[in-house]
Amino acid sequence: MNQPVLFEERPTANGMRIGVATLNAPQTLNGLSLDMARMLDERLRAWAVDPGLAVVVLQGAGDKAFCAGGDLHGLYRSMREAPPGNPWSNRYARDFFETEYRLDYRIHTYPKPVLCWGNGFVMGGGIGLMMGASHRVVSETSRLAMPEISIGLFPDVGGSWLLNRMPGSTGVFLALTGAQLNAADAFFTGLADFHVRQADWPGLLERLLELPWAGSGVGIDTDEEAPAFAPRSMNDGLLRQALVALEPSQGLEPGPLKQHSFQINNLCSGTDLLDIHENIASLAQHDDPWLSKAARTMLAGSPGTARLAFTLLLRMRQRSLEDVFRAEYVAALQATAHGDFAEGIRALLIDKDRKPRWNPATIEAADKQWVLKFFDEPWPEGQAHPLADLGAA
């Protein structure tokens, strides 16, 4: 049986090593399973304290996707088997979301450079892995999205933090429509740092083996006068130089999100979801196919997801990344017992009839009172939040 994540440690010219983690499930577009998340987290913990490991590389097997989501089939089975209405009884969902969110947070706070190859599809759980990396790379084939509106969840994995930091009201638009971004719009929204052609990626990995990486026993770490942050700073710089050297000379044309950002900001500003929903819906017959598809996706999607995603964006606007992960953990567990998550997966992946029966069925019914249950902590009274230690020294 193939390992779901492949790990390599490639020796460099000066004796340091590059750690390469490859998501190895190309048949499912490298969707992140619980086993994959556990394996990644365990290896990242080990590499973080390995003095001979200079840089971590995250990539996906095959050329179609880095990671196109999470383990929806496993979550669906767990929701079918768990007692109805009791999110804390779903042990698989508890473990999955805790492990995934801890992994994502680890990448955000990693002590060494993390290079993420966002080639092909990067969606949902893939966004969670990529957005915390220090060096995020897209190619001409990159398509990024948080399409949870179509499966009845919400943009999680820190999405409530990420979307709030996008220009203007574009994050609200993306949360409600699940619209796909190309490489240019990945830069516009702050999801990408570098652009490398797909054909140049193998050469980049070879080039990394030739660079004079800093680390324990190598380079400046042998100088007691060198500041403690110097190896990280040097290695960040070396990685940046290698990536910039491969960037295509011809710049990217503005993507559709940036092209329509003025209109989107006007349509999605304010705190009234019903108004914003109506404004986006007015684009369903727009001449621009990207805008019309975004509007039609929202209209076909879960009204409950729209309310939950929008409420999270409002509540998390000034909160820390740690607080966002904690709030999303509660909401994700509640979504396994309430709302449309199971129904969305059924319609898309199980029965594949693409005819979800959303409940509530309208945006008006998914009101401010309805959404409150997604913020109730589901564990026994007096128990600490499973992610309470995020951010602790």
From TrEMBL:
It catalyses: 3-hydroxy-2-methylpropanoyl-CoA + H2O = 3-hydroxy-2-methylpropanoate + CoA + H(+). GO terms for biological process: L-valine catabolic process. Its EC number is 3.1.2.4. Keywords: Hydrolase. SUPFAM superfamilies: ClpP/crotonase. Pfam families: ECH_2 (PF16113). GO terms for molecular function: 3-hydroxyisobutyryl-CoA hydrolase activity. GO terms for cellular component: cytosol. Coiled coil: none annotated. Residues 18-375 form the Enoyl-CoA hydratase/isomerase domain. This is 3-hydroxyisobutyryl-CoA hydrolase. It comes from Bordetella genomosp. 8.
